[in-house]
Amino acid sequence: MKILQIAVGIIRNDAGEIYITQRAADAHMANKWEFPGGKIEAGETAEEAMIRELEEEVGITASEPQLFDKLEYEFPDRHITLWFWLVENWQGEPWGKEGQPGRWVAQHALVAEEFPPANAPVIEKLVQTP
Asked: Do 122 and 84 form a contact (C-beta atoms < 8 A)?
């Protein structure tokens, strides 16, 4: 069984919108929407990985992220630990650097079913948070 550590950024603008991207058609959980991020590499902290991933995937430099949630999820073929960082300060404008679609969505309008199942508790928490 694969064991993965994943760090993601919940990018929230001043209007209370969250920037999400769509997973590739050939990726695990294909075509689902997600918060940008990726695997934590050897020697990286979860925060460092999230900052690196946001630069690589959506072209922004995050600053002052706050840990929003950490959870574990079991798939039949993998066990993942997800670190969710709330990012409200950054340089640049997020866009799909790897060709992936991206969009802003109102925080209260996030739909858990559009995301991989591991995201459901975080989406529920975001929808209920002002």
From this structure: yes
* Structural domain count, the chain: 1
Spell out the per-residue pLDDT of the chain, length 130, in tens. 899 999 999 999 999 999 999 998 888 888 999 999 999 999 999 999 999 999 999 999 999 999 999 999 998 888 999 999 999 999 999 999 999 999 999 999 999 999 999 999 999 999 998 7
What's the CATH code of the domain at 119? 3.90.79.10
Say how far apart CA 55 and CA 40 lie, in whole Å: 14
Residue tagged 């002002």 (tokens): 130
Other CB atoms within 10 A of residue 48 CB: 13
3 state SS for 55-116: HHHHCCEEECCEEEEEEEEECCCEEEEEEEEEECEEECCCCCCCCCCEEEEEHHHCCHHHCC
pTM higher than 0.70:
yes
- Domain containing residue 81: 2-128
Q: Return the amino acid letter for 57.
A: E
